[in-house]
């Protein structure tokens, strides 16, 4: 019938005529059959009406419309049943949810969402095989359904089918490469579960063999399960338990004997741990628990996962850090360090905690003179490197962080110097986010605190050296922004950096030069003050004896000064006779240095006698080589061509050498750059 309808609708007359003939034949055959069936035994009258092709097509069209209407009704019913199933699922009534999804599939058998939703409900009911079956049906409806791969992986994991679970997650990643983070979390879960099972099998063997540690841990946990004991009784028992956990086997025995249910099952322990820790007994209990968790979680990812899954522990960690009790804070930091020092641990913290809120909590440890400050900054450095940290913070500093940071900078002499330097470095790395960088760059108080720190160092170089080095790095990051605050402070910033150029610490000199190269373009007054302060002579000195990074900053500073100041051009020509420093840089393998050296040279050729001083040198050959070269940076060719053109304009005798080198064509093409400048 489909072929007949297609033929009748054809634009080709021959095909259409053939289809009509076949249709007439089919109708005739039907009439003959009906004729035999319609004869009566009374009068033998044939009751039959021959339908036309038009009627046949109308019947087909009517049937198609009815089918479409039926499908639309079924789709509406299936969607309604899906919503009822979703509502039941949200309420935790998984059996009803499964029933509604099933009724929806009876209405519409190819609705992928109903299969995956029912699979999710089956997972909640621990009917893992049925969940896998529904995921397979969902993939038949949509072979790229990532939810089906995800749920199927979960079901296989619950059945301890570790290889199959990994395969599901790998297919998920192949289908949706942007789900890399989800894939890593899922694979980590599979690895943890597989390790947990192996550890528990080994621990069971130890227990069955009469291992003393197994007996000891079990007995201690039983004693801690006794109700109505004093807080000190529980604290002492927990300390003994922590001492008994000496390795992987004991960690597994603690887990298999429900050690992590201690807070949940013992009201007195939970109440004492979650209290305000106003009494020495409550402090002792908290410290004992922290020591126990360190023992059972050290190097054990499975136990780390279970500990953070406890709502009471998860909620108390920030409170413990903010408790103000030195011993509690010390042990809490030690526990968190177990997580922050490895990738899976950091992922767990990011999953269960709002890491952005920890920024302010951990920064409050900077004033402490003991090991807490260093531990807190080490943890913060690890956590802020995680992508989840940036996603949770939205690329912005949480409220309260900027005032606290400014306060720490302002009181640099009273806080832990090493910790403050680390904190400044962390803030500098966070400036990679445009929003965070903008917040800091627009804060006048922050800039003034930085300048105050530089003043303190200049008055007493024996103090704050490490902090000054970090602050200069932060300032370079902030100067990627341009705003009125920076412009208003440009003279002060450049003045402090000029004073630091004579420092004995090479790193500070390098960074001060880097800040100068960033701040001088922001304000003409700052540039003029720097030129009058002898910046050109100092930059030439750095170019002669400095390292690669210092030379890069120094050359950039010279380019900025010589572009806008005739005095700077004249001082450069005087400080570098015959441009020996710049010519040496033109032979560098670093394209940035070559491009900036050519730019600086071209800007200084306007000084009378400058171009003539280069007669007899290889400058024409060098510039010609770069102008016609294939450097990755186009600025190398452009700046070299411009310098070559300016050289020949300022001193026509250079054209003779250019002609000998057959470089007139390059000179001609370079003139457009000269005119444009």
TrEMBL record:
Q: Which GO terms describe its biological process?
A: axonemal dynein complex assembly; sperm axoneme assembly
Q: Where are the TPR repeats?
A: 146-179
Superkingdom assignment: Eukaryota
| SMART domains, alphabetized | TPR
Q: Which GO CC annotations does the UniProt entry carry?
A: centrosome; cytoplasm
* Keywords noted in UniProt: TPR repeat
Q: Which Gene3D superfamilies match?
A: Leucine-rich Repeat Variant, Tetratricopeptide repeat domain
Q: Which PANTHER family match?
A: TETRATRICOPEPTIDE REPEAT PROTEIN 12 (PTHR46540)
Its recorded name reads TTC12 protein
Q: Which organism is it from?
A: Indicator maculatus
Organism classification, top ranks? Eukaryota, Metazoa, Chordata, Craniata, Vertebrata
């Amino acid at each position: 019938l489909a072929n007949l309808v297609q033929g009748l609708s054809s634009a080709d007359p021959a095909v259409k005529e053939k289809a009509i003939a076949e249709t007439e034949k089919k109708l005739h055959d039907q009439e003959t059959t009906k004729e035999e069936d319609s004869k009566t035994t009374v009068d033998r009258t044939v009751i039959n009406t021959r339908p036309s092709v038009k009627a046949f097509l109308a019947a087909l069209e009517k049937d198609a419309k009815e089918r479409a209407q039926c499908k639309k009704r079924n789709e509406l019913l299936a969607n309604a049943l899906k919503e009822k199933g979703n509502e039941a699922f949200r309420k935790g009534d998984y059996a009803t949810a499964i029933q509604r999804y099933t009724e929806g599939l009876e209405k519409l058998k190819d609705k992928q969402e109903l299969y995956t939703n029912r699979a999710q409900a089956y997972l909640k009911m621990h009917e893992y095989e049925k969940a896998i079956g529904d995921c397979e049906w969902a993939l038949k409806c949509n072979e790229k359904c990532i939810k089906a791969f995800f749920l199927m992986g979960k079901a296989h994991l619950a059945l301890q089918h570790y290889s199959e679970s990994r395969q599901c997650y790998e297919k998920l990643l192949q289908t949706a490469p942007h789900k890399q983070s989800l894939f890593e979390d899922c694979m980590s879960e599979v690895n943890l579960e597989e390790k947990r099972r192996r550890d528990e099998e080994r621990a069971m063997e130890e227990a069955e063999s009469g291992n003393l540690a197994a007996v000891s841990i079990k007995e201690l946990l039983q004693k801690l399960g006794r109700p109505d004991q004093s807080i000190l009784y529980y604290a002492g028992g927990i300390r003994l338990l922590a001492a008994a956990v000496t390795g992987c086997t004991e960690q597994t025995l603690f887990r298999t004997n429900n050690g992590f249910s201690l807070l949940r099952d013992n009201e007195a322990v939970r109440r004492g741990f979650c209290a305000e820790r106003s009494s020495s007994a409550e402090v002792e209990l908290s410290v004992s628990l922290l020591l126990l968790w360190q023992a059972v979680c050290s190097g054990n990812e499975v136990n780390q996962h279970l500990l953070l899954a406890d709502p009471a522990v998860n909620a108390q960690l920030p409170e413990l850090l903010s408790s103000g009790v030195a011993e509690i804070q010390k042990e809490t930091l030690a526990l968190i360090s177990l997580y922050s020092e490895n990738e899976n641990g950091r992922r767990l913290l990011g999953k269960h905690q709002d890491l952005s809120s920890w920024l302010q909590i951990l920064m409050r440890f900077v004033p402490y003179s003991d090991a807490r400050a260093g531990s807190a900054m080490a943890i913060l450095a690890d956590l802020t490197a995680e992508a989840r940290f940036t996603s949770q913070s939205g690329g912005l500093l949480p409220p309260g962080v900027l005032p606290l940071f400014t306060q720490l900078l302002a009181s640099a002499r009273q806080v832990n110097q090493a910790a403050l330097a680390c904190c400044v470095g962390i803030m500098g790395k966070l400036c990679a986010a445009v929003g965070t960088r903008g917040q800091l760059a627009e804060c006048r108080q922050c800039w003034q605190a930085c300048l105050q720190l530089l003043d303190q160092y200049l008055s007493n170089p024996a103090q704050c050296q490490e902090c000054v080095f970090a602050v200069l790095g932060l300032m370079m990051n902030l100067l990627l922004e341009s705003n009125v605050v920076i412009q208003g402070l440009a003279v002060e910033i450049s003045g402090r950096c000029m004073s630091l150029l004579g420092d004995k610490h090479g790193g500070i000199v390098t960074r001060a030069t880097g800040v100068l190269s960033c701040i001088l373009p922001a304000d003409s007054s700052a540039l003029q003050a720097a030129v009058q302060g002898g910046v050109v002579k100092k930059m030439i000195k750095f170019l002669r004896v400095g390292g690669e990074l210092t030379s890069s900053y120094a050359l950039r500073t010279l380019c900025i000064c010589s572009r806008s100041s005739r005095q700077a051009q004249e001082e450069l020509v005087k400080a570098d006779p015959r441009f020996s420093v710049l010519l040496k840089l033109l032979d560098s393998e670093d394209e940035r240095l070559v491009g900036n050296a050519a730019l600086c040279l071209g800007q200084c050729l306007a000084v009378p006698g400058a171009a003539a001083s280069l007669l007899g040198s290889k400058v024409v050959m060098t510039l010609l080589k770069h102008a016609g070269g294939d450097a990755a940076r186009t600025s190398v060719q452009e700046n070299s061509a411009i310098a070559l053109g300016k050289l020949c304009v300022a001193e026509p005798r250079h054209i003779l050498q250019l002609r000998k080198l057959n470089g007139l064509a390059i000179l001609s093409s370079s003139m457009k750059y000269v005119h444009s400048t």
